[in-house]
């Protein structure tokens, strides 16, 4: 037991220093590492496998909704980036510039893509001719670079992995429907795969994507009461299609500009998983996204029949599509392994020893609530499949309860400031809709309006910050 | 019929101008497009879906052989690139340099990765401590940039997509076994997925990877008699591990340098598929890698029951895991559609009309040999699954026969030069092993030694180029 305490002590307690807890967890569980290039991270296999599971879920849903993958160049000529005014103002300060190819200086600087609207629109402009070809429903999986001054692995790094969808539509209505459909797929992914409840809504003008008509977002609440913007979907209207002269012959025979959307989620989601579900023992991974769903630890594995049985169970679970690891390393004790996989957040630990085999049972320990129960070896695959679903549902329920506890309604700016200091979380209130009011709140408190939720409640007639007439109910929070 | 001829005429004949045929095929089938950045291509959905199928095959095989995916930074500091002497000499002339981040000039230039040995070794040096942690079996899927003066889509572009495996091993024997294992997985993929026969062997010193001890390769013969290097696997020995000071505590307690491999294939393979299997009507896609395996074209689709039956067949085939498209567009005639999907190389076309339904049959046309036969609608899924395998096997057999026809043994340099001019292909002969001899042949004829094949034959005692004592049997060819 002494060893266990020591082991767990390696991770700083959340309550003592949340940022340090986060760093301890990602480093000690081998998810990620700092690279020799400041602000760039290495995603190690245990972190990358989570991304692969997110990719697999989303890629399936994108294809089911008619999207196809493609690939556009990494480098974008400066002149293209400059074509949409708001866009270049938003991104130029944070791009990496390529100035030389081999030993030659380039005639025009190229930026490493911070996002691909401009290069993609330049191609769409070349391709599109008729309404018959619409909609364009394309997506790409790639990395993007945005030069950041202060970075944290997964949450904010100068390079990250993501997907970016870019679609064109004949009508404004179709573009709006696509924008909302993709946001709802993100929300479904967050809840069904990551067990993270999301608030969905629209960004204020101040917070929207550079060049968008409207940006929609899903926002999650982390354990420390800060919000994480977890996915965005933009209705770009005709801002880019006009700037890039993308036209098509419409049904009436006239040339028209198509309506445009883009949407993306990134490896930042992995940071969200850690900060929503993790605890002082380390990671707690939602089962559907966990690289290892069940770790089998044989007890007294030198005893006859133990390893055979352990391998038999592994095979049975794998046949059910469960991701299993059997750790039969003889260099470490079962106790050391328990701690190790607990820290790594493996949802279920299955212990099997000589006495269990005699009784035709296995002990199964849940990572999420630390409970332990014995299960019959008969139909173990089915019991464990069901248990993984139970763990998922319990984790989503607990995360939702926690978020709701941390969500408060404020009546005025003073109450807001006090509550945000004492017990930060989602603040619900009415807002006048004015950028000036929003900017003042941010300057004075560091809190931003996270979104104007789809699910509007009428909490009063005046802005809870400035007392002008209210326009929207909003969620505000400090954010990553 | 007039329309059909016109349609096919759009593609230049192979015999008239092979490079133009290639360009016509990739452009007219919507696989790829040129981008606004010289030498950079856009991979469109029909080309990208082929890459996804290659990825899916390889990713499964990599994981089955114990490899894990991860992700290393896109940008590499100049000082890291400089650490291995041969490597920097090989790559520095063709890298893109990032000199500014946002508005700030960087203290040190960063290159966009041309390959990742250096950045990965800098991390391995930080991570590795003991022999117990070995082997490291890591892979990443990403894009790389190599500044090229003259480019052709898929074959040679300034950016391309690939995977790069990077492994560390305790012993030289294990590294060599890994190097050969990965080459054999590439060969398996080429033959079982792409229906392309490969010659496997070792590169000459002149042709090996910059920094490698030995490079192994798979080489395919294109329809015009030129070779395509299709995948390489490098035994890097301790060249990089010493340069990057990667050490581990060995079994004896002493510090040792691990043995190192790297291996990769890229989107260049798609160029190989086109140039091995294509014909004057356009693409001919091997069924296992084809984005669409069967296209269903309803005949007289306005007649009652035709579309219902067509959808029923689609569903049945999809349930068998077959990739199906049903084209029920009423803007185009069946004849137009036949030409379209023929050009796009869809392996099987299924026609279903009122008379077929009456007779409980469907007509199926094979793209590879243009034969047409009727099949009973009973157990159609099974018939078509079997037929797809037949098509694959026939394509691989024909490509092998063609390659063998184009492979000749030469007795001396004069005969070699004449044959290479009259009927280029793989030239088999003996070689002295001297770099000078190899360089002379390349300078005078443009032909390179493609590999020293594993399957050695003794064709004489003297070098067939220069008459010095022979060391190896080699394959030589002009190459892409
Ligand atoms: Zn206000
Ligand atoms: Zn010679």
From TrEMBL, chains A, B:
- Read off the domain note: Consists of three domains: the N-terminal catalytic domain, the anticodon-binding domain and the C-terminal extension.
Annotated GO molecular function terms are: proline-tRNA ligase activity
Q: Where the protein is mainly located, per its record?
A: cytoplasm
**InterPro entries on file:** aa-tRNA-synt_IIb, aa-tRNA-synth_II, aa-tRNA-synth_II/BPL/LPL, Anticodon-bd, Anticodon-bd_dom_sf, Pro-tRNA-ligase_IIa, Pro-tRNA-ligase_IIa_arc-type, Pro-tRNA_ligase_II_C
Residues annotated as domain Aminoacyl-transfer RNA synthetases class-II family profile: 45-286
Q: Which reaction does it catalyse?
A: tRNA(Pro) + L-proline + ATP = L-prolyl-tRNA(Pro) + AMP + diphosphate
UniProt subcellular location? Cytoplasm
Cite the NCBIfam families for this sequence.
Answer: proS_fam_I
What are its E.C. numbers?
Answer: 6.1.1.15
Name the top EC class. ligase
Protein name from the UniProt record: Proline--tRNA ligase
Q: What does this protein do?
A: Catalyzes the attachment of proline to tRNA(Pro) in a two-step reaction: proline is first activated by ATP to form Pro-AMP and then transferred to the acceptor end of tRNA(Pro).
Q: Which family does it belong to?
A: Belongs to the class-II aminoacyl-tRNA synthetase family. ProS type 3 subfamily.
Quaternary structure, per UniProt, is: Homodimer.
Gene3D superfamilies the UniProt entry points to: Anticodon-binding domain, Bira Bifunctional Protein, Domain 2, C-terminal domain of ProRS
TM ranges? none
Provide the alphabetized UniProt keywords. Aminoacyl-tRNA synthetase, ATP-binding, Cytoplasm, Ligase, Nucleotide-binding, Protein biosynthesis
């Amino acid at each position: 037991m002494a060893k266990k305490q020591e082991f767990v002590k390696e991770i700083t307690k959340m309550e003592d220093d949340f940022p340090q807890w986060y760093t301890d967890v990602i480093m000690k569980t081998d998810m990620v590492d700092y690279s020799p290039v400041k602000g760039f991270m290495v995603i190690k296999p245990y972190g990358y496998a989570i991304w692969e599971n997110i990719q697999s879920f989303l890629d399936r849903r994108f294809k089911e909704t008619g999207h196809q993958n493609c690939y556009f160049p990494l480098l974008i000529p400066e002149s293209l980036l400059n074509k949409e005014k708001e866009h270049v103002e938003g991104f130029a300060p944070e791009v990496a510039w390529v100035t030389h190819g081999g030993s030659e200086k380039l005639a025009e600087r190229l930026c490493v893509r911070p996002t691909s609207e401009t290069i993609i629109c330049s191609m769409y402009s070349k391709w599109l001719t008729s309404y018959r070809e619409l909609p364009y429903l394309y997506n790409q999986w790639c990395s993007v670079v945005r030069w950041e001054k202060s970075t944290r692995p997964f949450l904010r790094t100068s390079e990250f992995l993501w997907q970016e969808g870019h679609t064109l539509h004949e009508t404004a209505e179709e573009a709006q429907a696509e924008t909302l459909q993709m946001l709802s797929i993100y929300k479904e992914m967050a809840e069904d795969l990551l067990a993270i409840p999301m608030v969905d809504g629209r960004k204020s003008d101040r917070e929207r994507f550079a060049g968008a008509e409207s940006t929609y977002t899903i926002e999650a609440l982390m354990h420390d009461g800060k919000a994480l913007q977890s996915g965005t979907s933009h209705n770009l209207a005709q801002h880019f299609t006009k700037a890039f002269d993308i036209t098509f012959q419409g049904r009436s025979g006239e040339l028209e500009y198509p309506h445009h959307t883009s949407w993306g989620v990134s490896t930042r989601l992995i940071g969200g998983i850690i900060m929503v579900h993790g605890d002082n023992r380390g990671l707690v991974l939602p089962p559907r996204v966990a690289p290892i769903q069940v770790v089998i630890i044989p007890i007294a594995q030198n005893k006859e029949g133990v390893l055979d049985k352990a391998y038999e169970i592994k095979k049975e679970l794998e046949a059910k599509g469960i991701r299993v690891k059997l750790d039969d390393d003889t260099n470490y004790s079962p106790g050391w392994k328990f701690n190790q996989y607990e820290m790594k957040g493996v949802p279920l630990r299955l212990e099997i020893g000589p006495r269990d085999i005699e009784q035709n049972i296995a002990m199964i320990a849940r990572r999420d609530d630390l409970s332990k129960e014995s299960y019959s070896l008969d139909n173990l695959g089915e019991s464990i499949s069901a248990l993984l679903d139970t763990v998922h549902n319990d984790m989503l329920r607990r995360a939702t309860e926690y978020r709701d506890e941390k969500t408060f309604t404020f009546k005025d700016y003073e109450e807001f400031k006090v509550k945000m200091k004492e017990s930060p979380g989602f603040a619900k209130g009415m807002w006048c809709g004015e950028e000036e009011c929003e900017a003042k709140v941010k300057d004075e408190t560091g809190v931003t309006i996270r979104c104007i939720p789809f699910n509007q409640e009428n909490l009063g007639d005046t802005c809870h910050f400035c007392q002008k007439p209210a326009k929207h109910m909003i969620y505000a929070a400090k954010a990553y």
